[in-house]
Design brief:
Chain lengths: ~120, ~140
């Protein structure tokens, strides 16, 4: 079954709701691909917990497993699902209310300055 | 549907459509309320750009121009990388309402998932910096 944009975004948001998974994704984003052991050395989380979360993230398509050195599985961040989630955040972040208020203010101010200019011209 | 694909707003403005139209479709107008500076080539396919102090820039492509009635453009989805092909469509519709204007803005396309985004999300495994770095290495090797 082909997942839709919303299903992909939901997986991303669910994954990000957990502080341990946020820490793992953050570490992969800043430091690049890493093994569960690498991550356990860098984060205050047990290797077992990290492995469990990596399996979940891999299932959700947010990280991909690849062969690393010494036959260790290395995990790499996949940005595409984040981009899908990000378009929903873009809808929430788009401030049309603010923009339309600014448009009204601009038009009112322009009209007022036009009136003032006319009054100015009319007075001796 | 928990996530919106479109945003819709209607506002009543106490100025005639011609005045509102100028604010929406001229560089001077757009630069006064929307961006801090703007350029616009007002014809379908024409490009427009808005710049904000602080360095933000929005590139728009004009899609629809019906004098004093409809102005539509597409632009990049905010927050996505520049190379992402997805864009949302923004359409302003102006209707006379007494001495003023009823202005509707609809922005749509937030829930799209292009085929290539689908492939990138689930099939591809070379993306982002690894790909860029690979291209840099190839470029340097060739030089």
């Amino acid at each position: 079954m082909r997942p839709d944009a919303e299903a992909i975004a939901e997986q991303v948001f669910v994954a990000l709701a957990d502080p341990t998974r946020r820490a793992i994704l953050g570490a992969l984003a800043s430091g690049g691909p890493a093994t569960a052991t690498d991550l356990a050395a860098r984060l205050p989380i047990t290797r077992q917990a990290i492995a469990k979360h990596l399996a979940l993230l891999s299932e959700a398509g947010m990280v991909t497993a690849e062969p690393g050195e010494r036959r260790r599985v290395r995990y790499r961040l996949r940005s595409a699902p984040m981009r899908v989630a990000q378009q929903f955040l873009a809808a929430l972040a788009r401030d049309w209310d603010g923009a339309l208020d600014a448009l009204k203010d601009h038009l009112d101010n322009s009209a007022m300055s036009a009136d003032t200019a006319q009054e100015g011209n009319g007075s001796p | 549907m928990a996530f919106p694909d479109r945003i819709e707003r209607t506002v009543e403005i106490a100025h005639p459509p011609s005045t509102v139209w100028a604010a929406l479709t001229t560089a001077e107008g757009l630069g006064a309320w929307f961006g801090n500076e703007a350029t616009i080539d007002l014809r379908p396919g024409g490009s427009a750009q808005m710049t904000w102090t602080g360095g933000f820039t929005a590139d728009m492509r004009v899609e629809r121009v019906e004098d004093h009635t409809v102005f539509g453009f597409t632009w990049h989805i905010f927050g996505l990388p520049d190379e992402d092909p997805r864009r949302t469509y923004v359409e302003f519709t102006l209707e006379p309402a007494g001495p003023g204007t009823r202005l509707t803005v609809i922005e749509s396309g937030f829930a799209q998932l292009a085929d290539d985004a689908y492939h990138k999300a689930y099939d591809g495994n070379t993306d982002g910096w690894m790909k860029e770095l690979g291209e840099l290495v190839a470029y340097l090797d060739a030089a």
